[in-house]
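Need UvrABC system protein A's 3D structure for a figure. Predict it.
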Amino acid sequence: MSASNQEYIVISGARENNLKNVSLRIPKRKITIFTGVSGSGKSSIVFDTIAAESTRLLNENFSMFVRTFLPKVPQPEADGIENLSMAVIVDQKRLGGGSHSTMGTITDISPILRLLFSRAGQPYVGPANMFSFNDPQGMCPECNGIGRSMIVNMSRAVDMSKSLNEGAIMLPDYKVGGWEINMILQSGSFDVDKKLSDYSSEELEQLLYGKARKVEMEFAGKAMNITVEGVIEKFTNKYIKRDVKTMSDRTQQAVAPFIIEGSCSSCHGARLSQASLSCRINGHNIAELSAMEVGQLIRVVREIADPVAAPVIKSLTERLQHLVDIGLDYLTLDRETDTLSGGESQRVKMVKHLSGSLVDVTYIFDEPSVGLHPRDVHRLNELLQKLRDKGNTVIVVEHDPDVIKVADHIVDVGPHAGSRGGNIVFEGSYEGLLESGTLTGNHMKRPLQLKQESRKPSGKLSVKNATLHNLENVSVDIPTGILTVVTGVAGSGKSTLINDVFLSQHSDAIVIDQSAIGVSSRSNPATYTGIMDDVRKAFASANKVNQGLFSFNSKGACENCQGQGVVSIDLSFLDSVDLPCEVCGGRRFKEEVLEYKLNGKSIADVLEMTVEQALEFFELKEVVRKLQAMSDVGLTYITLGQPMSTLSGGECQRIKLASELHKKGSIYVMDEPTTGLHMSDIAHLLAIMNRLVDAGNTVIVIEHNLEVISQADWIIDMGPDGGSRGGQLVFEGTPTQITDAKDSITGKYLQ
Ligand code: ADP
Ligand code: ADP
Ligand code: ZN
Ligand code: ZN
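Structure prediction for UvrABC system protein A:
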């Protein structure tokens, strides 16, 4: 191998999925961006060829003994892949991990903060462990460091608009005329005819939370000492602090509606013991710092002037700065990672790698611009450049023109999707791409056009006084019968407004997201859209046999693989691997079933057809309508039998859209539908949205993509910034109006 080749990852004759003998060189220690329409083969090169080979090589480093336990990662379909370094994939898979995984723990910032408190906290307390809610020394003993516990659902338990005599207390033991309520009346401490809303705060405190005390009362002429206790206090001690298993089923059922999960009553959600919470630096305890937005936290940390802690402060500010740099300054360290969006998760993972010391690694990113407003894309670019400048090879699959601009090298895959793609149509510089005449090049040159004539709404859906996360009393009207785009920088409150508030109030809305449609391992586009039912009937009547024969889970299915086409091999402590079924060769049906033909094709032949081929083959009205809908959303290239699990998020979303295209009068909500879509696919998507609107539906889209925003009938812009500096309605109006709106960052970028 020549020395110059060492500077490149060299791939020759790659044939995974739709790739047509692709050969290319990827410069090392540079940023290479792969682009091209959805389904063109970008992932087949980057993930199924490059990343897969890297994993295989890594496994080969293990001894023969260990390797017998590792899944046999098959060699990717290619003639050669040379000069690979270790690959790290930074994807958008959400960070799971339950309540013990937070932004702080996942970025390794929390341990440093604990170290800081153990060095500089007052009063001096003890080891860093004392400040960890994952450690028995530090966790709140009441909630075991979870920060939440079961509490009384106050809105169900107490009706403030009534008096005690009118039944203000709605808990099971407090029926008017019953023992508990009579005790309260007899105690003489409370005005039984006054509405609770007219009680003073002391009276209310005493009634609801008063500690147990003895009161002398008269019963049947005899004086008795009776214990009286606050209503909520008593209920909590009697039913919540007790092991539910010791209560009868009836009691459990009676009290269950009055109990909800809420902030722990001891630590108030801080998760830590009282001892660690009493330790402070410049007046703040560790829980307060963890609940602070990173942008503010970094300023507070910089102000700590303690020479002993100086090295800790330095490493803390360094890491916090990475979070600020990537545009996550609106998040808090105590934020649970499973509430982060896909884009946020990916950026958090990125920060972890920036702080690490690996060099000569191949970093692979899958659309890192997801969730970022155009204003913040430059931050992402700087991060990619930093990784490169540390001596790493950076490979990015991306559609955003502003990210594509920073590439040292661009690979454009196409020209189209599926079988009409799988080639490299351009390799070279950004300037070269603009002049290449490819779909990507041409789209990058086109100027943005603002929609001039907005549709008139047919009505409106109101959100009133929304107060959640960072939203403060937001009221907004969402017009019906038109296309509304909700926009704003990341963290401004778009998802909170639409996904959390609006959807909970308008439960009839239909959400079209990119989540996988994994009904079962046997589902595919034919079964999902219902085409398979009609196809089975057609086969049955053409051959005068039972239609059940043509189902994957019937007698007609291959017995070896139960109609799956693949056999899963379980490897006790590793992911299982799928191997093609040896009996049916992946065709999924028994030999005798494949003998039955419809116009010369077997059921397996039909499942191997692309949507495009099936449109030519079928004449059945219902089947053609469903196929046409799939074709309309740009899915001409997928095969009817392709397992749903191999479809990308964008493809799943479009299949869902396809099955909605014939409806009228519905409300559709889509969260960043352009994810995974090439500029030319976006035109397609817009056409579908417009078709839905023209058929009388309401479409509400959360988007940063300027192309989509520019084509809205109505724009709702949240902001002005992220986190506590956001949460307000900055602008509502049409695309031609937003460019004049002074406070709208989005407006500036549309100009
Ligand atoms: P891109 O990343 O450019 O969107 P992909 O590389 O994911 O494109 O897909 C290229 C083609 O290969 C598409 O037609 C896709 O449906 C098909 N494909 C991808 N993965 C599989 C798979 N596991 N089995 C069969 N076909 C696949
Ligand atoms: P956008 O959709 O505009 O990116 P979000 O609605 O996701 O913004 O977030 C708005 C604010 O609410 C941010 O400060 C974010 O950190 C916070 N937030 C969002 N989801 C949660 C959650 N589940 N728990 C706590 N805070 C949240
Ligand atoms: Zn607690
Ligand atoms: Zn089989």
